[in-house]
Give the backbone structure.
Amino acid sequence: MNPIHRRDFLAGMAGVAAAPLAAEAKPLHANVRSDAQLFVLADPRRVSARRFADEQVANGARATAWQEDPYRWWHEGVAPVLAELPNGQRVCIDGCTTWADYLVLVGEATRAGFRPVVVPHSKRARRETRAATLFTWRLVAMA
């Protein structure tokens, strides 16, 4: 087994950290029902995520207040807004976050009755997704 030197490790980590910053958030192409309330969750620290959120808001989505911790983001930013909606209101949540944030958010959303409908499904996409990779996703409330 070849030992890894500190310099090589740091150089590799710098490449991993820089790669997601260059990635562009792709718009979601799945249609949203006209009677659904659309929300958008995006990490405002990332330029492409802000662009994604701005585009979604321009199309009628409601943005939620950003929280550094995705668990708090769901419980303090999203859940209270969802609780104010009338019963039976269809809800769709689009997001542009890192994979790590998505995993926390989808766990909380699943407990609240949502399911993911647009996520990277191919084996290659899952294999190439890192914790800091920025990507778009969609959750819908289960009927």
